[in-house]
Amino acid sequence: MQHQLKDILYGISLISVQGNTSVDVQEIVFDSRAAKAGSVFVAIQGTTADGHAYIPTVIEQGCHILVTQKAVEVPAHVTLVVVENTSKALGMMASLFFGEPSNSLKLIGITGTNGKTTTTTLLHKLYMELGFTCGLISTVVNKIGNTEIPSTHTTPNPVALNQLLAEMVEAGCTHCFMEVSSHAVAQHRIAGLRFEGAAFTNITHDHLDYHGTFKAYIEAKKGFFDELPADAFALTNLDDKNGMVMLQNTKAKKYTYALKSPADFKAKVIENQFSGLVLNLAGTELWSRLIGDFNAYNLLTVFGISQLLGQDKIEVMTVLSKLESVEGRFEYIRSNGGVIAIVDYAHTPDALENVLKTIRNIRTNNETVYTIVGCGGDRDKAKRPIMAQIACEMSDKVILTTDNPRTEDPQIILNEMMTGVEGQHFKKTLTILDREQAIKTACAMAEKGDIILIAGKGHEKYQEVNGVRHDFDDLKIVTELFKKLEK
Question: Which residues, including other chains, have CB under 8 Å from residue 24's CB and lie 6 or more apart?
């Protein structure tokens, strides 16, 4: 794919231009190591490194087209474009370079702390079942139709993102359902994209290691809605206390959904069992294989979006009743001995509380609830004691263990979690550093009817220790342990 530089600068706030903009551009890069002749190098000022520092190296490598947000000295043969914000320019340039693919799709963005993956995945499954060809961009996997493309970030970088959207258009996709993380908004990864609509799930304590304050985290989520065009829709969760904050400055058409408040899209949970949910959804009874109030919200979000996109209500509800849980989201298995194990991605205080509330609503109180949970390293430390506190308050037995310690000492993470365990809960709390051993211990202790929640990793098939990823799959481990215990 080749363009002239001037064609991919349209709409960008330029401060100055030095040199020829009628030069051919074969690719856009922001990693200095990839820059070469024919590349345009966009210098990004990141949290750990500043792309501007690598400009001499980039020029040595034969790259003679630069986009910066600082005035720099360059040789006369180099084209230098100085812009207000290179992160924003990168997104807009990538969109133009790949033929503005978001204009050829109905692109729907889902943001919020919890529920993004389930909602986007259910939307993709729903629309594929309804006969559409559509794309999915999620934490777990990216899809073009039913073809899977591995996912590395919740929201890919702007070049990869626009390339993926262009491939979706090429493959005949009419819709794309996309998770939009707060990082992606703050880093302008979605700049230049045109969204048909956006939905907000909820907002709770997460990523404060990156955003600094809860207010900044809310502002990042809200920034997504602030940029929506007037002909898009903005759908928000009215039951979340920050739900209406999201819509304050948006030009998009505003809609609400709720379980507890009057809203444009309303549902009520009639039954909540391990076999599934029964909902009164928009005046019609719907049975779903999904479990728990949090999934009632996810189903309601999906239903609301389908209606705003003009789908038939009965057709949508028929498909929704067939859809199964998303991988690593309240996945449960029952041993022959009658022990239930639930694997869930819950890695924030709110998500853990929601899963444990769901278990509490379903249990009979004659069984013991075991919670196995850890906290990731190199991430938001403030949530560690809160996670342990919630686990202790809402479970009968708790095993604190490792999650992905990354480059941190796992024992220090556990010590920080233990600060949230109050004196009356000491007796029921164990700390076991080895996650597999923690799962084994719970399985050995559990009796018929007991429930084991293995929280934090969900769909992940690895554990990251000292920056190295090792094979690790919670569901696979507990399934194999159940088989061994039954022999």
Answer: 2, 3, 4, 5, 38
Count of residues making up the chain:
487
The residue assigned the tokens 């949910």 is 277
Average pLDDT, the chain: 92
In angstroms, the CA 370 to CA 443 distance is: 9
Single out the residue of 318, 345, 455, 324 nearest to residue 391, CA to CA.
Answer: 455
| Beta-strand relationship, 24-25 and 3-4 | antiparallel
Distances (CA, A) of 111 to 177, 223, 229, 355, 408: 11, 11, 17, 20, 29
Residue listed under structure tokens 């000491």: 426
Check pLDDT > 90 for residue 187: no
pTM here is: 0.82
What is the Cα–Cα distance from 63 to 79, expressed in whole angstroms? 10
Mean pLDDT is lowest, of 48-57, 119-128, 210-219, 392-401, for 210-219
Provide DSSP, 60-120.
HTT--EEEESS-----TTSEEEEES-HHHHHHHHHHHHTT-GGGGSEEEEEESSSSHHHHH
Helix (H, G, I), strand (E, B), or coil: what is residue 198? Answer: strand
The pLDDT confidence band at residue 193, using thresholds 50, 70 and 90, is: very high
Q: Where does CATH 3.40.1190.10 sit in the chain? A: 100-320
Q: Pick left, alpha or beta for residue 131 (phi over 0 → left; psi -120 to 50 → alpha; otherwise beta).
A: left
Query: Does the domain spanning 100-320 belong to CATH 3.40.1190.10?
Result: yes
How does pLDDT run across 399-439, given as a tens digit for each residue? 999 999 999 999 999 999 999 999 999 999 999 999 999 99
Is the CB of residue 257 less than 8 Å from the CB of residue 300? yes
Q: Which residues pair with 110 in a beta bridge?
A: 179, 199
Residues of the chain with CATH 3.40.1390.10: 3-96
Residues of the chain with CATH 3.90.190.20: 331-486
Query: Under a CB-based contact definition with an 8 Å cutoff, are residues 478 and 367 in contact?
Result: no
Question: Per-residue pLDDT tens for 232-268?
Answer: 999 999 999 889 989 999 999 999 999 999 999 999 9
pLDDT-derived band at 212, boundaries 50, 70, 90? low
pLDDT on residue 207: 44
Provide the CATH number for the domain formed by 331-486 in this structure. Answer: 3.90.190.20
What's the CATH architecture for 3-96?
A: 3-Layer(aba) Sandwich (3.40)
Which of 369, 403, 370 lies closest to 384, judged by CA?
403
φ/ψ of residue 6, rounded to 5: -60, -30
